[in-house]
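Narrative progress, year one. The postdoctoral researcher (J.K.) led the effort to move from monomer predictions toward full complexes, under supervision of the PI. The following entry was the first complex the group processed end to end, covering 522 residues in total.
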Amino acid sequence: MLRAGLLSALMLAAAPAHAFIAYVSNEKSNTVSVIDTDSWTVTKTIKVGQRPRGIEFTRDGKFVMVAVGDDDTIQMIDAKTQGIVDTLPSGPDPELFTQDAAGKTLYVANENDNTVTVIDLEKRARLGDIQVGVEPEGMTISPDGKTLINTSETTNMAHFIDTGSRQLVANVLVDARPRFAEFKHDASELWVSSEIGGTVSIIDPQKHVVIGKVTFEIPGLRKEAIQPVGIGMTKDDKTAFIALGPANRIAVVDTATRKVTKYLLVGQRVWHMAFTPDEKYLLTTNGVSNDVSVIDVAAQKVIKTIQVGELPWGITIAP
Amino acid sequence: MMLRTLAMAALAFLVAGSAARAADPRYPNWPCAQAKVPDISLAAVWAGPPLDDAENKWKDDSKVSALVSKLAARKTPLDEAEKSVKEFLAGSADKIANAKLLFAGLFDTLNAQRAQVMSGLERISHKQREAADRIREDTVQLQTLQDATPRDDGKVDAMSNQLIWETRIFEDRRKVVRFVCEVPTTIDQRLFALGRVIQQEME
């Protein structure tokens, strides 16, 4: 009896915390790398279409959607068989997309024709297009699903679109080349990164005004080398992680003071990131060093590097 | 006819080539699609303690400088180089000091190697421009010879052979340039990867 108790206690201790599966799109090698977060190794490399960038799990965790821009479509990977099973009807050159909380509607930014395509995820059918700013890039949706945000790299604006009427309701000017947008989980703020401006603008989503800015300074690095792109926000909205491109670092930002508390050297040209569902780890894609860095979120420390394909761009982790 | 097509193709090529080249006005001779970054800044690859006098001292340490030459050589596979870093630091008495010396050496050496490759690329690019001008002139001359009455077939042949030869050299060089354009990035990657291992070993 005692022995059995001891044994099960031992087994419990030895059991891995929780293994998750991460999918990374490799823009140059036209593949998706599958990473096991228990062994921190690449367990499979899936051949996909040309120039894969935006990548996301469906909310039910059954499929991974990957935008293959040069093939003008979004491919669906079955998470069980890890093979491509279907495509979604995006517009030309899809780069990034976002889905509503229910996982029913997908909004795709098509870089080449200045539109956002709306797709019904259940029927896998195109519902229509929304005309947006020139070269749409960043895409996100408000937690209540009512407002779609799209950033345009040419007009330097964040466009607010009402998802019900599919009409533009507001434009907010930010710094040069806005690339990525992320809401706080409580919907109180919208953060937009500007790659060339080198800042992150914080917008009041009700009043549609910029209420603050996060700036970055790394001694010894020229300002042009600091190019904010991907943003990750913890569930309690207290800490934001911001990828700084060729500065090769992730900035850790205290969202209350809007100041950087720490810079973590990750890999070369860090683009995007994803948390594990338990929020213990944050994984970043590093485009030039062709690897993924693993950050221990609580310790705010890089603990691991995993080699993937060429030019890793996007990342998604199974819910 | 055949020749004229060839010459036209060569010309079309040259024009396309010079258009691609004009990307950054600061570096008119830079032949690569990749942006020219003149040197790697220390902060882009190093988040460890200040290097202080390690920047001057690494050369005086024979063990460090020998290891630096081995690690900096592109023929040493990266994983083997990373292993050598770990072994060297594991076996050293003053790990932090040695890590700083080793990194300072790699930073110096790889940055110099990179600068050399880049100036070589710009030199070739300059030569290519001269070759392009020559091909352009010779094409015009060939056309004049072909249209002349009476036509001197000997001269036409000689000029067309010369043109074929010049175009071939131009093409070969262009291929080499495209290949060499990847080298500065490869060096960046090596420096970053080795720097990262050194910093991890210091923690």
